[in-house]
From TrEMBL:
Homohexamer. This is GTP cyclohydrolase 1 type 2 homolog. It comes from Chishuiella changwenlii. The gene is yqfO. One of its GO terms (cellular component) is cytoplasm. SUPFAM superfamilies: NIF3 (NGG1p interacting factor 3)-like (SSF102705).
């Protein structure tokens, strides 16, 4: 038996909601986390047609990349496609979950999929997120320090990139006096206690802070636990938006454009001035990515692939790289496959459908 919360927790293993952008609206937008799931339909956009498709396929959970509710709803009377989709979902008991920028900022998310489609290697995050690595400092009786530290590691502390169990310890003397009403594990009420203690320092991912603090309280011996947490300024090179990597073989610009059209299934590319240089290092950022142009330049990319560039954005290339706009839908189209494949691996005996509806609102002639 699978519930909506089980699917949400699975998705959040690769796309924690804590890493979504502040402006975004992610998570369960319509429905009940405790509802049993009959089937899952994965889509880029939740349109009324997609909700109808979910009904026909007996899927009461839609996992959508883009959030159908973004800027808020003041009325529900069906005057636009957003209200129509939400009303149809509610009437038919359809839950809607959106991941959007949480998956944008995932190391194995939207931009990983683009890089994979273009067969890039030596990939790394283009714009790493800062202020999402935290540090926990606490003190424990030395004889119990390793037990406590391992419990914190089991809860997710000490993980960064391809490393786990990252921490630091130093031994010293701690002192305290239990007062009236206390129930000390060590010492007696009214007596000053000096104890061999170990200061424990561990890094922790921001999205696991709650679970790690819970583990701290569950495994610490003291009645009153001294601890502190604070945010590190370090960027996390494994979480962030966009990716940059290398082609196996460099190409001239026109050959690369042909390759890009073929691999990204796009008939139309807008681009800045050609520089008559070989293309080797490629930066990608699915969706609206004008804000990442300076980062692509700083990464010494030969070309930057994104969408929704405005007229004046093309000037900012400044002959340092070639900017390409392949279309918003086109840049994110393979995200649906990524989510579907992941859910099928997590729930092997459960029905997960890839929506057959093309929700791209842009047409070409």
């Amino acid at each position: 038996m699978i519930h909506v919360k089980d699917v949400a927790q699975a998705i959040e293993e690769i796309a924690p909601l804590a890493y979504a952008e502040d402006f975004d609206n992610v998570g369960l937008l319509v429905g009940d986390y405790n509802e049993q799931v009959t089937g899952i339909l994965v889509t880029l956009d939740t349109t009324p047609e997609v909700v109808e498709e979910a009904i026909e396929k007996n899927c009461n959970l839609i996992v959508s990349f883009h959030p159908i509710i973004f800027s808020g709803l003041k009325k529900l009377n069906g005057k636009n496609y957003v209200e129509k989709a939400v009303m149809k979902a509610i009437k038919n008991g359809i839950n809607i979950y959106a991941t959007h920028t949480a998956l944008d900022n995932s190391r194995v998310g939207v931009n990983f999929k683009i890089a994979e489609q273009l067969k890039l290697f030596n990939t790394k995050i283009l714009i790493p997120k800062a202020n999402i690595i935290k540090q926990l400092i606490t003190y424990a009786p030395t004889e119990h320090a390793e037990v406590l530290k391992n419990a914190l590691y089991d809860a997710g502390a000490g993980r960064i990139g391809n490393y786990d169990s990252c921490g630091f310890s130093v031994e010293g003397k701690g002192n305290f006096r239990p007062m009236g009403g206390s129930n000390p594990f060590i010492g007696k009420v009214g007596e000053l206690v000096t104890e061999d203690e170990t200061r424990i320092e561990v890094v922790m991912p921001q999205h696991l802070e709650g679970a790690i603090i819970k583990a701290l309280y569950a495994n610490h011996l003291y009645e009153e636990i001294a601890y502190s947490t604070f945010t590190l300024n370090n960027q996390n090179p494994y979480i962030g938006i966009g990716m940059v990597g290398d082609l196996e073989e460099e190409m001239n610009e026109q050959d690369f454009f042909d390759y890009l059209k073929q691999e990204m299934n796009t008939p139309f590319i807008r681009h800045s001035k050609l520089l008559n240089k070989k293309i080797k290092k490629v930066a990608v950022l699915g969706g609206s990515g004008a804000f990442g142009i300076k980062n692509a330049i700083a990464a010494n990319a030969d070309v930057y692939i994104t969408a929704d560039l405005k007229y004046h954005d093309f000037f900012t290339a400044e002959n340092k790289l070639v900017l390409t706009d392949i279309g918003h839908f086109e840049s994110e189209q393979f995200t649906k496959n990524l989510i579907t494949s992941f859910l099928k691996e997590k729930f092997t005996n459960f029905v997960v459908f890839n929506s057959g509806i093309n929700t791209n609102p842009v047409n070409y002639c």
